[in-house]
Amino acid sequence: MSEKSLIPFKGTPEQEAELMKVIEAHRTQPGGLMPTLQEAQGIYGYLPVEVQKMIADGLGLSLSEVFGVATFYSQFSLTPKGEHRISVCLGTACYVKGSDKILEAVEQKLGIKSGECTADGKFSIDACRCVGACGLAPVMTIDEDVYGKITPDQVSKILESYSKGGADK
Amino acid sequence: MTVADLNKIKTEYEDLVKVRKVVEEEGKKLAEKTGYRKQILVCGGTGCTSSGSRKVIAALEDELKAQNVNDVLVVKTGCFGLCALGPIMIVYPEGCFYSQVKPENMKRIVDEHIVGGNICKDLLYKETVHEDGTILSLSETNFYKKQMRIALENCGVIDPENVKEYIATEGYQALYKVLFEMTPDDVIQTMLDSGLRGRGGGGFPTGRKWAFAKASKGDVKYVCCNADEGDPGAFMDRSILEGDPHAVLEAMTIAGYAIGAHQGYIYVRAEYPIAVERLKIAIAQAREYGFLGKNIFGSGFDFDIEIRLGAGAFVCGEETALMNSIEGHRGEPKPRPPFPAVKGLFGVPTILNNVETWSNIPKIIRRGADWYASMGTETSKGTKVFALGGKITNVGLVEVPMGTTLREIIEEIGGGIPNGKKFKAAQTGGPSGGCIPAQHIDTPIDYENLMKLGSMMGSGGLIVMDEDTCMVDISKFYLNFTVDESCGKCTPCRVGTRRLLQYLEKITEGKGEMKDLENIEDLAQHMKSSSLCALGQSAPNPILSTIQYFRDEYVDHIENKHCTAGVCKSLVSFEIIKDKCIGCGLCARNCPVSAISKTDYIAPGKKLPAMEIDKAKCIKCGVCESNCKFSAIIKK
């Protein structure tokens, strides 16, 4: 495993109590593992092995089964995300309009690759498969903000508005 | 809820919705009857929300309140289809179409138009304003003229969060008709007679699927809705869920009655937050009004629906994989037979249809199989929704009768290719489909014709490519996608997609050999015949169709080490012609990766030192070339 897995787990007792409630709610539901993982990721922001263990114990499943599901779906992340989550759409409609160049500009600017998080925990980058706002291609989202019809030269300015703290659209 | 209650709500709300369908005098008269002098519809779909429609609605409501206007109704609808022009706003009974509106326009629109009665013509979609100043209604524009909206009938017309507006458009009448006037066999026969085929990809006849599930023995059966639209660039299912969620609920309940199921599941992408929210609201309202739950309309029939969120896996569009995922497992497909109609979700008979298919069903029940079968081609009946994207002017959602040609969709409805570029290919069927070249642009679109051209219908993504798109690069893009999304269960797909990608990488890096093309075709045939599910079987389609129609481009990459379209990075570079550069530095300021810097050289007759590009840093995005006013930067 890479060094990413060495990021220490910093779950709080409050988060754990919340997770226990989620597990309780899905314990008897047929196919309850997926909704449990989704809600657990909502609580912790990612799914570290410690959380997977609690879920496995709570639902009466083996850790390998929980790990198998958590690693199968692209929405689940085993590593923490940045304070600001950048997502560059690489759907077909965005790709033919050059979104790969946007992604590269973001990667170069932050010095990390897609799927990684900056050392200060400020930004993480992901390539995503279609936001569904194809009319605005190419599209990049940061947290809940959508930036459409962007060009690589606008990337710096957009990112700076976040590193100064807060969106400034 | 009785049928009398249903009809009462329908009568009460009918005029309100009808105002949005008729214009001029009739619309005005109807509007007076409803108590709302005007209705303002604002798109609340994902496209327009992303371009800021929430702020527009808030500003509009504030302005109306500030001016004390109480006889105007603001309605947040689903997608109108013309996503490129968002946020979109339509005012009835005039039916005038404001495009790309901003919150700061609201004061003027309310002042001049809503209160003053003078339409702000300069803010309207320019195609709707005639030279002599007359204003066209939406249905007269090129984008809408040739469309036939059935699956999308209510999208952009009703408020999807208000069940009463759905009822006003004859909503839930089909469910009543089925429960009291038809036997399950009648329903299945109607589906068979209508000729409706699955809109999710394969095009399997819906009625036959239902007949198999009905014939399967078992007390417990399930009805599933595939709303896990995985094709990147396709958004028709999302738009239907956002614009008309009750149509899907009504149709699934009808199917439950036909096959003898009492529980439905909607498997929807978690990345569609607006669709999920509207579905939740719709389910809650349907339960409240008794369209879901126990003893529907007093018929003794019970049916309920649960939402399950997908977590981002393309393979979950395959039916057995989707069911595995609902069961809480990895979304890996299973060998068929047994087909889900015999042994599906949780091991019992199950039917699965996609959102667009469901959306057609209440209309078929109400208007009859013959009506539906009268549209389309010999083998493909009805209409098809396409998500038109890529290098096209009118990006958006279009619904046309089967048999419409690509040319009509691209040139007439889509408004052609922007910036005077030449059409090169249209891609249908997403990562499972292929590229259709210009020589086949007049082919009528239906399931069979697309297969013959080496593509497929798929869910309806239609991406237009122009001369600047490299066909080798685009097939590499799709293979990258399938490599990522291959679930890994069967070897032909897991290994085959990676091998295909390696060949394409080799070719786009200028290291290809002619024998690679033969190897690709050979490997592709093996994958098609031996992969476990449709994902692997169809994964070679993008590459095979591009080799078939654009072999010259592949050969150019291999033999001449040249990318015809100037896209493949290893084969292009940008250079500054120092004697043309005046040293203004615009390129350096705009370079997203700071790859451009000053040299010591001052060209004869120029005052400032010329610039140069550090090729190691350059990401070849072309921003410098498009910004240079002195044509000093060239692409090689």
Structural account:
The complex is a heterodimer of chains A (169) and B (636). Chain A has helices at residues 13-26, 33-44, 49-59, 63-72, 92-95, 99-110, 155-163, and strands at residues 84-89, 123-128, 140-142, 145-147. Chain A has 169 residues and is an alpha+beta fold. Chain A folds into 2 domains: 11-72; 84-163, Glutaredoxin. Chain A has a 4-stranded mixed beta sheet with strand order 2-1-3-4, with helices on one face. In chain A, strand 3 and strand 4 form a beta hairpin. With 636 residues, chain B is of the alpha/beta class. Chain B folds into 5 domains: 14-142, Glutaredoxin, CATH 3.40.30.10; 170-373, NADH-ubiquinone oxidoreductase 51kDa subunit (Rossmann fold, 3-Layer(aba) Sandwich); 383-466, Ubiquitin-like (UB roll); 471-559, Up-down Bundle (de novo design (two linked rop proteins)), CATH 1.20.1440; 573-635, Alpha-Beta Plaits, CATH 3.30.70. In chain B, a hairpin with a 5-residue loop joins strand 11 and strand 12 (434-437). The radius of gyration of chain B is 27 Å and the shape is globular. The model of chain B has no long low-confidence stretch (mean pLDDT 95). Chains A and B meet through helix 2, helix 4, helix 5 and helix 6 of A and helix 3, strand 7, strand 9, strand 13 and helix 19 of B.
